[in-house]
Amino acid sequence: MLGILFIYFIGKYFYNLAIEYNKEKWLYGILGVVVYYAGGFLILAGLIIFAELLGISFVDSMNETALSLLAIPFGLASCYLFYYLLKRNWSKNFKVELDSIDEIGKPESN
Question: What three-state secondary structure class fits 27?
């Protein structure tokens, strides 16, 4: 159930970010969820390999639920980093489109 909530909220934040900067909504919504799972898996796998090389064998004594709960902060951190980089990159290149050059500086009429 927790995983479904993560999928929903991560997808929602990336979807809204894509709308804000006029990018592909569904692509970045799905990509945010993929980054969450890939980041959690890759960082946890690297941590496990590093621990095994040092001779610390904690994976054998842990169950699958504990490993999946351990992957959550790494997935969220990678997702946040990707969100931050996208927002920073898009805000540098974003230009507000004006309707017409004649409307610049004119007050709105009711």
Answer: helix
CA neighbor of 27 nearest in space, from 86, 78, 89, 91: 86
DSSP 80-102: HHHHHHHHHHHHHH--PPPS-GG
Half-sphere exposure of 37 (CA within 13 A, CB side): 9
Task: Return the structure tokens found at 60.
Answer: 């054998």
How far apart, in whole angstroms, are the C-alpha atoms of residue 28 and residue 26? 6
Give the gyration radius of the chain's Cα atoms: 21
Statement: the pTM of the whole predicted model exceeds 0.70? yes
Q: Which two tokens stand for residue 51?
A: 């621990």
Phi-psi region of 55 (alpha: psi -120 to 50; beta: other; left: phi over 0): left
Q: Where are the domains of the chain?
A: 2-91
pLDDT digits (tens, 9 = 90+) for 36-66: 999 999 998 998 899 888 888 777 788 888 8
